[in-house]
Amino acid sequence: MNRLGKSHLLTLLVGLIIGAVALGAIQAAMHSTTDVRVGVKRLADGRVEVKVQQLDDELGWNDLELPPARFLELNVPVDAWRYTNPIPVSVAEEEAEVVILREPPLMCVLGHGYPEDDRFWRWTLAGSGVAAYQYGVQIVRYGALDSDEHAADLRDCISRGPITIATSLPYADDLREPLAEAQAAGIQVVTFNSGAEDADSVGSLMHIGLDDFAGGVKAGEQFVAAEVSGTVLCVIHETDNVGLEDRCNGLEATYGAGHVERIWVDLTRVSPDDEVHGVHTTPEHVQVLLAERIAAGGVGAILTLNHDTGIAALGAVAESDAEIALGSFGFSDELADAVRDGEMLFLVWDHPVAQGYLAVSAMALAYTLELSDLNAEVFLNGAQILIEPTLADQERAENLKSMFAGPPPTPQTEDEE
After folding, report:
1. Per-residue pLDDT tens for 225-253?
2. Which of 57, 157, 286, 351 is most buried, most CB within 10 Å of its CB?
3. Contact 273, 334 (CB under 8 A)
């Protein structure tokens, strides 16, 4: 009795293992279930036979093909596992839930400067990358040096089939045609950075940017408060950028102690030795040009509109040893040190990260409206979000230096992908 009891227990364990293995195989392969049970029978000669049955919804329990090795002999060792041959078990296929995995939507961000050469665009495109990650979208980022390259980038973006494009708008007339092509292809368009006054004319759903005119106004107020007199030079580093013109216009609106003289220099030209109509192409050339103008007399202050020309102006003033007030748009530790040390009067912080981040946010908003069956063009109605520029004077310059833990990251643009 004792021996037969152990054999019977061992048989039951073997049967349970067979059933568990069969069920596990079915569930892993088909992700569905079927009822299977283990049958155990003691034969006249004392052996025990094991088989498996499967439940059919219409016919009841069916005998499956019995495996050749399915008997438990009387003389098997105690506490030793025995296994049958594999038993094929069929499962009626059930309609499975279909899951469609979609690629994240594609968007394009187009600026008008190379991020590896321009601190502002380095930060702006980096900010757009952060927003794209948070919104779960793919973006292709472009940098261009002139309107022809910018228009070519727009057409390359269109060929990729994006849902939305965010582009800077420094020269609206040159970008009007490719933007119309994008809209004809059903691609939403938002604009950012320069060109707020032209955004509506190119069909932009929303414009994000710095209030450039207000930045110039603040600069003029600073020069007036410092009792500057004489001519103020307003150095425009991109000759066809309407936003930079707006900054000089704002300066003219508030500075009344003299004349505002525009100095056009072009830092976007490819060849550092190239000069067209007296337009200088490197910060070193700009420094020479400003030093010559200072030497001609009558200059009371200089306002530069980006970091590189700010550095050039610092060099020109130091070279001339003249008492000239300096202000600049943009930021770097070097410029912040100059403000802290009294070599520069103020900085106008142009919020590049915010502009890049909000440009992607505007695209996401436009896309969300369309998904909600709302007409984005009517709903947004050409809305504009203009960032109020902020000033860093001598008191705040030291704090500005702690704003970043390291140098601006260099985002990957289309040319690098």
Report:
1. 999 999 999 999 988 899 999 999 999 99
2. 286
3. no
